From TrEMBL:
This is Signal recognition particle receptor FtsY. It comes from Psychroflexus salis. NCBIfam families: ftsY (TIGR00064). It is found in: Cell membrane; Cytoplasm. Its EC number is 3.6.5.4. It catalyses: GTP + H2O = GDP + phosphate + H(+). It comes from the Bacteria. Belongs to the GTP-binding SRP family. FtsY subfamily. PROSITE patterns: SRP54. Pfam families: SRP54, SRP54_N. Signal peptide: none annotated. Keywords: Cell membrane, Cytoplasm, GTP-binding, Hydrolase, Membrane, Nucleotide-binding, Receptor. Involved in targeting and insertion of nascent membrane proteins into the cytoplasmic membrane. Acts as a receptor for the complex formed by the signal recognition particle (SRP) and the ribosome-nascent chain (RNC). GTP binds at residues 121-128, 203-207, 267-270.
């Protein structure tokens, strides 16, 4: 098995395989057409492969890196058959993504102090659901979790988060719709400290109509939390909808300009053929992918592992 050793549980790996099925089928359908009737990986095949990768939402920059790596392999090995292309792609993409592996991503919040995660993202990307699933994960690890309903601009956002709080059976701090989000943030971290909580998950408004206003709002939220916990937030998690493909790139860039995003969660991969966007985002942005959503179940938000992802994507 080598590089692709099994590190997930069998159930999680099967769910990951299922979640990437549409993306994988779409990719290999295009790849099959690109190499049909050709036996050697030559310039024409590489040109077609470039189109396949870009149209699979891998992104131009990452696609160019992958093509260059394969060109180097072709130059070194002199002859590479098209039947070897799948294995080569798998190896080179895994190698490319592993170069930016962040060992800190596997570390879980430590017990004994509130680890504050501020969750950002536009409306509709699955932000509230992601918070609920994370709350469930942390609780199952034996951690005490507090939720904060900082998206005060939509009554539905507060109600949806309350549903998750009730479902996972964790406390949630909220105020009336239209309240100052920073006030909710302050109350949340203050309550978490009093409850001796381990993890705080703070929702924020899902708006991106004006980067200046967004930046001011998120900066204010951070500032008031730091009155209670000087190091807060410890993470800023940006949630992106994988089914939007290249639009997810743009959202990531805009939010990164508005606040210091430290990690990404990419959702809804099970319902799309655009799973290649994870490869591109993981490579191009200086922000690591930490979680991926591969189903609607409460346990279907998985820790992102680049090797397992590539293994599932290229496993036929």
């Amino acid at each position: 098995m080598g590089l692709f050793k099994k590190i997930f549980s069998k159930e999680k790996k099967e769910k990951l395989d299922q979640g990437l099925e549409k993306s994988k089928s779409n990719f290999f359908s295009k790849l099959g057409k690109a190499v049909a009737g050709k036996s050697k990986v030559d310039d024409d095949v590489l040109d077609d492969l470039e189109e396949v990768l870009i149209s699979s939402d891998v992104g131009v920059s990452t696609t160019i890196k992958i093509i260059r790596r394969i060109e180097d392999r072709v130059a070194k090995d002199k002859y590479l058959g098209t039947e070897e292309l799948n294995a080569i792609l798998r190896e080179e993409i895994a190698s490319l993504l592993s170069e930016t592996e962040d060992d800190n991503l596997t570390k879980k919040p430590e017990l004994g102090h509130p680890h504050v995660i501020m969750v950002v993202g536009v409306n509709g990307v699955g932000k509230t659901t992601t918070i609920g699933k994370l709350a469930n994960q942390f609780k199952n690890q034996g951690k005490k979790v507090v939720l904060g309903a900082g998206d005060t601009f939509r009554a539905a956002a507060i109600d949806q988060l309350q549903i998750w709080a009730d479902r996972v059976d964790v406390p949630m701090i909220k105020q009336q719709m239209g309240s100052d989000p920073a006030s909710v943030a302050f109350d949340t971290v203050q309550s978490a400290v009093k409850q001796n909580a381990d993890v705080v998950l703070l929702d924020t408004a899902g708006r991106l109509h004006n980067k200046v206003n967004l930046m001011k709002e998120l900066t204010k939220v951070k500032r008031v939390m730091q009155k209670v916990i000087p190091s807060a937030p410890h993470e800023v998690l940006l949630v992106l909808d994988g089914s939007t493909g290249q639009n997810a790139f743009e959202q990531a860039k805009q939010f990164s300009a508005a606040t210091e995003v430290t990690a990404l969660a990419i959702t809804k991969l099970d319902g799309t053929a655009k799973g290649g966007v994870v490869i591109g985002i993981s490579d191009q942005l200086q922000v690591p992918v930490k979680y991926i959503g591969v189903g609607e179940g409460i346990d279907d938000l998985q820790d992102f592992n680049k090797i397992e992802f590539v293994d599932s994507f290229f496993n036929q």
